[in-house]
Amino acid sequence: MSSTAERLLALLSLLQSRPGWTGADLSARLGVSTRTMRKDIDRLRELGYPVEATRGAAGGYRLGAGGKLPPLLLDDEEAVAVAVGLRSATGIAGIAESSARALAKLEQVLPSRLRPTVTALSNVDRAPENTGTDAPDPEVNHSVLAAIAAAIRDVEWFRFDDRGTSRLVEPYRLLSWHRRWYLVGRDPASAEWGVFRADWIEPRMPTRRRFSPSPLPGGDYTAFAMRSIAASGWKVHARLRIAAPAEAVLARINHSVGVVESISDTESVLVTGADSLETVAAYIGMLGMDFTVESPADLVPHLRHLAEVYLRAAGAS
Questions:
Q1: pLDDT, tens digit, for every residue of 78-100?
Q2: Whole-number Å distance between alpha carbons of 132 and 279
Q3: Do both 93 and 145 map to the same domain?
Q4: Residues 49, 85 within the same domain
Q5: Tens of pLDDT along 7-38?
Q6: What CATH number is associated with residue 152?
Q7: Of 44, 173, 201, 285, whose CB is crowded by the most CB atoms within 10 A?
Q8: Where does residue 288 fall: left (phi above 0), alpha (psi -120 to 50 degrees), or beta otherwise?
């Protein structure tokens, strides 16, 4: 390194890039002696950066939590990725203004060589993302996601209200899918696993009660969540008897669209859902299979309306 200032910036960047470093690794990456590296660590501490050190064979250095956010040191690709991410953040309420402030600060300090790239990407138009349903996009407050994430991080029970129902769960994962956020959790009393929509969650006071994590059967949180969302994660659900074997239905749908139960070699049941019955009615037709509505009865008028629309279209051709 040509100067102490450049070396300190490089050292700070390394400490920010991963949770821990050995002294030997830091010295090698900086191209200096261990003694010089230690002096640089002391200089960072004098500047207010909480660099923590641990002794022993597994010891090393890490950047601890400080009283203020240290400057982020990003390489070219990271800077562009952050700028694009700030421009395209959607689905979380209350962050538009803070995202704009963060983006303005980032663009102010971008090197001139990166400005054309970020400017070009900012001129890309965004098409509507909610094209699969007539229901408005749900938004989740950023404070709700923060509360869930904190409980997951601290391995603490999470208490919340879900559309008037009080719940207590062991929180394990946050999942983002189709502009929606979901919590995967386990009821400590019944040991039942469940998936909860974050935009329906109202966090209560933190419990501050830790728990011992239990393994999810099968181990795949995403697959479990997708199956659960198909069965119970929508505003409306429908149960349909399909005149086809379960294998044929599964071949026509994504596993996240619904849960299929085999009835016989020629019949099966599909449990599916959406945020409106109009959307359910439209997508059922894409199966291309005969079916009977078992529930809800309110779905039938929507199917009749679509049938009449299609009949008129066919008659006009």
A1: 888 887 777 766 556 666 677 77
A2: 8
A3: no
A4: no
A5: 888 888 888 878 889 999 999 999 999 999 99
A6: 2.30.30
A7: 201
A8: left
